[in-house]
Design a protein that fits this description.
The complex is a heterodimer of chains A (442) and B (221).
Chain A: H1 2-15, H2 17-45, E1 57-82, E2 85-104, H3 108-114, E3 121-137, E4 140-149, H4 153-156, E5 161-164, H5 169-173, E6 178-182, H6 183-190, E7 201-204, E8 207-215, E9 229-232, H7 238-241, E10 251-256, H8 262-274, E11 286-292, H9 294-303, H10 308-344, H11 346-354, H12 359-394, H13 407-432, H14 437-440
Parallel strand pairs in A: 4-9, 6-8
Antiparallel strand pairs in A: 1-2, 1-10, 1-11, 3-4, 3-10, 5-8, 6-9, 7-8
Helix pairs in contact in A: 1-12, 2-10, 2-12, 2-13, 9-10, 10-13, 12-13
Chain B: E1 2-12, E2 17-28, E3 33-37, H1 44-51, E4 59-64, E5 67-68, H2 75-84, E6 85-88, H3 100-105, H4 115-128, H5 144-156, E7 162-166, H6 174-191, E8 194-198, H7 202-206, E9 210-215, E10 218-219
Parallel strand pairs in B: 3-8, 3-9, 6-7, 7-8
Antiparallel strand pairs in B: 1-2, 1-4, 4-5, 9-10
Helix pairs in contact in B: 4-5
The chains are: A alpha+beta (442), B alpha/beta (221).
The complex binds adenosine-5'-triphosphate and magnesium ion.
Chain lengths: 442, 221
């Protein structure tokens, strides 16, 4: 029986190459686009290496120092309520003024002094990654982004070491000239990504570093991990390390023992900022530390909005709306195609009924046609998505980030398409299977 | 045995009501070859559709093989159509997406039957209407007369007890028409198939057992 329906479906689909092509194209292209969007979303928001514990992380992207000042005081006439009576008051003061502020990353010294040993923090790292360094290779200049950090960095982030090892706390303490490079740098600079690269020297700027390890490209897009070369922070220009100032080139990431503790850690950081003694600061009186979870930080960066809650709403509401539309539009298209196909075949359905088909066989017929389309379209979509993701990864179209293909997500989307395909084919077919045969055949 | 009692059929459009059949009584005993004649629009196709359970009468009762027909949907009526009835429609109604032999196989698809057996019976039926050599063609590659013969093959392939034929020779030359009449007559005499045939051709009508004339939805003889 199943074989009958299957051969029938294949026969009909072969007879209608244009319709079949359009349907397959619709299904496979929809799948491909959905897969691309989700893998990009996954790279942005997902918990992927080297940020598998991203949900436990608290980021300290920057500090804001503020000075509020009042340069004018007005005395205004006003009416105020006093003991239930209105009194004329000519002494009310209104102060007007302004605000100076300075926003930036943090000084290592400040982090070192104030943010070690927070409660519920499993591991944490300080790093500076807003610089670049040039390497010269056969007259060619390679510009690489640097990340100066401590040994705990490799604890917080689970980089995939293809070869070699992270640098140790001892190496950091000794300010050893060692470096961890990405596979991209290894390929560019050494022409190979092999164990042979470990122990070789790379000239960065005016200094030579020994390669300690090669890490795979991340599956995650975040500025805390997107360096090309990673070196002990002790090898950074000394002036950047030894400032007594609050602001400097460093950031911090704290990994909580558990996701639930992130809010507490953020509160503690805010508390530290509030109670921080600013008397040493000549220009400012108030210190604010922007501690944020990954999503808050991401939203704030994309939306250029300082209020984190606001930023999250601003980012996610349109994003989710847009995504829904992205999913809905091709689906509506498929539904339309599927519905009109059933209606087009009203007389065929009537003929089948006249010769003894019951509603169930009519439904089965359309079910199988839809299933065949979905399966073939799904396979093509799978191939397209894999090819596209591979192409993007191979050509570094998204910078250093690698896209991952999630089979689970693919199956979800395939099911989604199958469900909509079935509904859109079966509901009209159900209606049609009940129509009066004579009317349909007139 | 087909028994229609006081069957009326009316079509209602916005402005007018057309009475396609008016209080019609007709009974067709098993094994009869009956012809129906009448001017265009007098309700012949409507009558055939009601006898074939693909249209509901507005009033009156239909009894087929001793069973009063109450439902026009569902698997019971479907099985009845499949096993007892064979249609030859006035305008063929072949499925253009299926090859000739697949079209002929169609009624067998709704029976428990292997693919090989189905194919054999379909080719057999095509052979009987003289179209074996067109089995793999598609309907839009056939002439009107050839389509008509495919439609006949489809109607007879399942060996139904009753064949309802709406002008089965209307599109054929007299020679071909004669052959079709031969096929139907042989079905009737050899297998005892009941045949109800609408025709405009007096000579064809004379070859059947009985002639019923309609005029304006009423039986006049
Ligand atoms: N769906 C409908 N709506 C309105 N009127 C209809 C409908 N179907 C049929 N009729 C009318 O019912 C009458 C009988 O139609 P029917 O098709 O049975 O005629 P017929 O005898 O088969 O004619 P012909 O010889 O031309 O095939 C006609 O007047 C026709 O206009
Ligand atoms: Mg007619």
């Amino acid at each position: 029986m199943i074989k009958n329906y299957l051969t029938l479906a294949l026969k009909v689909l072969r007879r209608k190459p244009f319709y079949t092509f359009v349907s397959l194209f619709g299904i496979s292209f929809t799948l491909m686009i959905l897969m691309l969007i989700t893998s990009m979303g996954d790279a942005m928001f997902g918990a992927n290496p080297p940020m598998t514990d991203v949900n436990k992380m608290v980021f300290l992207p920057q500090a804001e120092r503020i000075l509020q000042f009042y340069d004018t005081t007005y005395v205004v006439d006003s009416v105020r309520m006093d003991d239930g009576r209105m009194r004329y008051d000519s002494t009310a003061n209104v102060r007007e003024g302004g605000m100076n502020n300075s926003t930036g990353n943090l000084a290592f010294h400040f982090l070192d002094q104030t943010l070690r040993g927070l409660d519920r923090v499993a591991s944490y790292t300080f790093y500076s990654n807003d610089g670049f360094v040039d390497a010269y290779l056969d007259g060619r200049k390679l510009t690489m982004s640097t990340c100066y950090t401590d040994a705990d960095y490799w604890e917080v982030f689970d980089f995939d070491f293809l070869y070699g090892q992270p640098f140790t706390a001892d190496a950091v303490a000794g300010a050893d000239k060692v470096v961890v490079i990405t596979e991209v740098v290894a390929r560019e600079y050494f022409g190979e990504v092999t164990a042979d690269v470990i122990g070789r020297e790379i000239a960065l700027g005016r200094e030579r570093f020994t390669v300690a390890g090669i890490v795979a490209r991340p599956y995650k897009d975040d500025d805390s991990i997107n360096g090309d070369v990673f070196m002990p922070y002790t090898t950074i220009d000394n002036r950047k390390l030894q400032s007594d100032n609050i602001s400097g080139p460093f950031n911090a990431v704290f990994k909580a023992e558990d996701k639930a503790h992130t809010a507490g850690i953020i509160d503690e950081i805010h508390f530290i900022a509030e109670t921080y003694d600013m008397s040493g600061d000549e220009d400012y009186e108030i210190l604010k530390l922007t501690a944020a979870t990954a999503t808050e930080k991401m939203a704030a960066e994309i939306m250029q909005e300082d209020d984190l809650r606001q930023a999250k709403l601003l980012l996610f509401i349109p994003l989710i709306t847009l995504l829904t539309l992205f999913v809905a539009l091709p689906l509506i298209n498929l539904i339309n195609l599927s519905v009109s196909r059933v209606y087009e075949r009203r007389s065929e359905i009537a003929v089948r009924k006249a010769f003894g088909a019951d509603s169930r066989s009519i439904l089965y017929q359309f079910l199988f046609e839809n299933m065949v389309l979905t399966v073939i379209g799904g396979l093509i979509g799978l191939a397209l998505a894999l090819l596209l993701i591979r192409y993007i990864n191979a050509n570094d179209l998204l910078g250093i980030v690698r896209l991952a293909f999630s089979a689970r997500v693919f199956v979800y989307f395939l099911l989604l398409i199958a469900v909509f395909g079935l509904l859109s084919g079966l509901l009209p077919a159900l209606r049609m299977s009940r129509t009066n045969v004579a009317d349909a055949l007139r | 045995m087909i028994e229609l009692t006081n069957v009326s059929k009316s079509y209602r459009t916005d402005t007018i009501e057309t009475l396609a059949l008016q209080r019609l009584n007709l009974s067709v005993p098993d094994g009869e070859f009956l012809s129906i004649m009448g001017p265009s629009g007098c309700g012949k196709s409507t009558l055939l559709n009601i006898m074939g359970l693909i249209d509901e009468p507005s009033e009156g009762s239909v009894v087929l093989a001793g069973q009063p027909v109450t439902s026009y949907n569902g698997s019971k009526v479907a099985r009845f159509r499949n096993e007892q009835l064979g249609f030859i429609f006035q305008s063929f109604h072949l499925i253009n997406d299926l090859s000739v032999v697949d079209n002929v196989e169609l009624p067998l698809l709704y029976r428990k039957m292997g693919g090989k057996e189905r194919r054999r019976l379909a080719l057999d039926a095509l052979e009987r209407v003289g179209l074996s050599n067109r089995a793999t063609h598609f309907p839009n590659q056939l002439s009107g007369g050839q389509k008509q013969r495919v439609a006949i093959a489809r109607a007879i392939v399942g060996r139904p007890n009753i064949i309802l034929a709406d002008e089965p020779t209307g599109n054929l030359d007299s020679h071909m028409g004669g052959e079709i009449m031969d096929i139907l007559t042989r079905l009737n005499t050899d297998l005892g198939t009941t045949i109800v045939m609408v025709t405009h051709d007096e000579r064809m009508a004379r070859m059947t057992h009985r002639l019923v004339r309609l005029s304006d939805g009423e039986r006049v003889s």
